Amino acid sequence: MSKSGLNGTVFAGGALAALVCAGVSAWAADDAKTIPDFMQGGMGWASAGGMEPVPGSPPLVAQDPKVKYTANNTGRQADGTYEQPTWRYADLNNPNLTDFAKAGLKKANDMIDAGFAMYNRTSRCWQPGLPTLNLSPGRTYFLQTPTKVYIIWQRDQIVRTVYLNQEHSANPKLSWNGESVGHYEGDTLVVDTIGNSTKTFADLYRTPHSEKMHVVERFRMIDGGKKLQVEMTVDDPASFKQPWKGTKVWQKDTTQPQGGNVTGTYNEEIRCMDGEMVNPFNQQYAGKLEPLPTDVGGAEQKLLSGG
Description:
The chain is α+β, with helices and mostly antiparallel strands. Helix content is 13%, strand content 22%. The chain has one domain (15-304). It has a 9-stranded mixed beta barrel. Strand 8 (214-222) and strand 9 form a beta hairpin.
């Protein structure tokens, strides 16, 4: 299957809004009675909560019960301030983890113990990969055409390409978002992804994975179309003794543009500023941040384009 480098393409300026508008026209030509309309007239889907386990699934990687986790802007105190946020610290006693996965998670825990600032990958301008991209904050947009579905993450304009009604390549090259093929099953878009770069992680705790990781996502609208849910099945024998399932929900964002000010509106574009977390006057702190990838010989661009 030949592709033109759309996986992971970054759209800047007004490209996101233009793409969504173009997609609305393309969508009008399709049979909207049989295919779910995830575009919703250009509205985005705002992140609403984290990943939840599916009943009957092996346990998801979770916080070590001996280490308190405090998310941003939580734990409101009497004086109106919030508790100091902390980092995710994985419970290594999860019975579904292999020794390979435990070793990777212990490395991440040890980095926290050593004082490293373990920001989410997207906070430091990294491509997060799958399924972590689904767990990132911000809005997600869909651009549906008869042959492809583009899943666009608003912050940093990360774009996934889902090739409809096609088979996987025999030997896909590893890339940040992998190679995704999909099809519709009634009201559900089913996306099958392989070829995920091992520079990414399987969750927000930094669980490592092998080149064999296989992710299946099932996107469908729930709550009368007010919410979008994805059920993710992650299979990688190198990291997990059994495949696990988790769900993530977004809420339709119907906020309209306000004259001359796009901040907080549904179609604003946010471009990540490389290195924004580094204070150049505090090199001791900067040395404890995860180093950003460098594009030596165009290697990162090749990952973005699927090889």
